[in-house]
Structures are given as C-alpha cells and as structure tokens.
C-alpha cells in the first residue's frame, strides 16, 4: 500500500471493513490515484478490490457490491467548470469496477436501499447542492432535493432519506434533515458543528458532529456521544455491535499515523484493528 496517502471513507459488514484511500487532489493539485480495500473485522492483511480510481469521498455496501463516490473537478482559467465526479461499484471480492453515474459536482456522501443508490453533491457555488438517486444497476439519476447549501452526508432508512448541512464550523449552525422520499424536509437536529457521515440502523441515526461520533433516535431526540472529539475520529461505519472509524493522528516521533479503529455502539474502549 505504498502508493496510498490518506484513507477517506469507510464501511463494514459482519466479516470485513472496507475503505478507500489515496492522494488528496485538492491538496496535491493533481488527479488522485486511489484504491478500494478491505480487511477482516478482527484485523489482518488488507486486500485491494479496485485500484486506479479517482479520490474516493464516500463508500457503502450491500450483499454483493461496494459502492463509492469519487471526486475530480476543476475550473479553467476562463472560469468554465469541469466536473467528473462519479458513483461506482465493484463486487465485494473484487473485479471490474462499473460506473453508475458521472459528471457530478463533488459527490460527498452515499447511501443504499434495496433499489437505489443515493448521494449528496456539495456543488460549486455554496447553494447548488443536491441529493440524488440512481437504480443499483445504473440508469437515469433522479433529483430528490436541489438548491441545498453544501450537503455533506446522506443516509436512508425505511421511507426516509436524511442529509446533513454543515453550517459554520464555529457558529454551530449545522443541521440534520429528514425527508420522506418525494416529501417535505424536516430538521431533526440543529446547533451542530459540521455534521457529516450519516449512517442509519433500525432505530438510530449516527453521524459525526462537533468533532465526535454521535447518535440520536431516527425521529430526533437526545444526542449520545460514542467516540469523543479528543480521539480525532474521521470517516466511520457501523454493524450491529460496533462503530468502525478512521483516525489520522501525530505519533510519538512527530510523524502521522492513520488507523482503523473499533468501538462498541454504546461507547466504551476503542480497539486498533490496523495501522495504515
């Protein structure tokens, strides 16, 4: 994994943890070369499922495939905007990746139900974000919500789609919004700092906000902190018992070390699964 720079997105099932990692195109000024990989939930050697893709921004799973979004866009000297974000998938055991949607403006999140892939596009102008859907096998994308202020994550549970609006980093104007599919949005939580990374199970909504990994009931309610901000959590995923999350921290020698971590859903001690 010598050509991998930064892990950027994470998902998990009962057997494996999956992630995408690569160089950051916004930092390096060049097109990223990224890899989608997996390892057993109890640790072990990583396996590459797809390589040579663009910078991965989000990742999700079903029984057969890994789905992820990629970022690549730029503005020419004359102000023309070129966009080449994609929604992609590859079998869980590796194979030939396929593209489900392309020409997207900074797709920042992804979620699945039994029929569709959903994603959020943060857009270019700050108010041209969208929440979109496409069939699992590809087809014409549908817009569920438009003219959003940089939606940063999306999740789906039952008949509802959820997304987050980051707001200001320091003024805690971020929101979590719920939308009955083709219905009217409703704010479920507000006063947050940069909420992102929404994940849903049968009863709760999980997300990162205020620098921590948190949860709350699907219909809104009290917030619970699972991984505190002091642990510097990044992208995360859940199964029935645990939260799996990425962290990139300074080590004792003054360098950087990225890790895949595991914490019980209800909070508690964290376990290192892999150092990357």
Summarize the model shown.
With 276 residues, this protein is mainly beta. The protein is built from one helix and 26 strands.
General description of the model:
By secondary structure, this protein is mainly beta. It has a single domain, classed as Neuraminidase, CATH 2.120.10. Helices cover 1% and strands 59% of the residues. The chain is built from one helix and 26 strands. The chain has one helix spanning 25-28; strands at residues 6-12, 16-22, 34-40, 47-53, 55-61, 65-71, 73-75, 81-83, 85-91, 98-104, 107-112, 116-121, 129-135, 142-148, 153-157, 160-165, 174-180, 186-192, 196-200, 204-209, 212-217, 224-227, 233-238, 242-250, 256-264, 271-275. Strands 1-2-3-4 form a four-stranded antiparallel β-sheet, with no helix packed on it. β16 and β17 (174-180) form a beta hairpin.
Provide the descriptors you would attach to this structure in a database record.
1 helix, Neuraminidase, 59% strand, mainly beta, four-stranded antiparallel beta sheet, globular, 276 residues
Please render the helix and strand layout as text.
Elements: E1 6-12, E2 16-22, H1 25-28, E3 34-40, E4 47-53, E5 55-61, E6 65-71, E7 73-75, E8 81-83, E9 85-91, E10 98-104, E11 107-112, E12 116-121, E13 129-135, E14 142-148, E15 153-157, E16 160-165, E17 174-180, E18 186-192, E19 196-200, E20 204-209, E21 212-217, E22 224-227, E23 233-238, E24 242-250, E25 256-264, E26 271-275
Antiparallel strand pairs: 1-2, 2-3, 3-4, 5-6, 6-9, 7-8, 9-10, 11-12, 12-13, 13-14, 15-16, 16-17, 17-18, 19-20, 20-21, 21-22, 23-24, 24-25, 25-26
């Amino acid at each position: 994994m010598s050509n991998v720079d930064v892990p950027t997105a994470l998902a998990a099932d009962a057997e494996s943890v999956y992630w995408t990692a690569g160089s950051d195109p916004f930092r390096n000024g060049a097109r990223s070369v990224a890899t989608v990989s997996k390892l057993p939930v109890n640790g072990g050697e990583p396996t590459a499922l797809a390589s040579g893709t663009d910078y991965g921004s989000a990742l999700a799973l079903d029984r057969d495939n890994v789905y992820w979004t990629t970022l690549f866009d730029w503005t020419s000297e004359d102000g023309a905007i070129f966009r080449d974000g994609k929604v992609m998938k590859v079998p869980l055991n590796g194979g030939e990746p396929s593209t489900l949607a392309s020409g997207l403006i900074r797709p920042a999140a992804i979620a699945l139900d039994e029929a569709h892939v959903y994603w959020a596009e943060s857009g270019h102008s700050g108010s041209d974000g969208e929440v979109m859907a496409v069939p699992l096998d590809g087809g014409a994308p549908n817009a569920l919500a438009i003219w959003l202020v940089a939606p940063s994550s999306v999740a789906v549970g039952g008949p509802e789609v959820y997304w987050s609006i980051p707001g200001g980093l320091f003024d805690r104007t971020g929101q979590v919004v719920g939308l009955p599919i083709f219905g009217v949005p409703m704010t479920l939580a507000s006063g947050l700092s940069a909420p992102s990374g929404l994940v849903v199970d049968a009863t709760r909504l999980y997300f990162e906000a205020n620098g921590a990994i948190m949860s709350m009931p699907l219909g809104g309610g009290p917030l619970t902190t699972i991984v505190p901000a002091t642990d510097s959590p990044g992208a995360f995923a859940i199964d029935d018992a645990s939260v799996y999350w990425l962290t990139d921290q300074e080590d004792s020698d003054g360098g950087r070390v990225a890790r895949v971590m595991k914490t019980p859903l209800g909070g508690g001690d964290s376990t290192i699964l892999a150092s990357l």
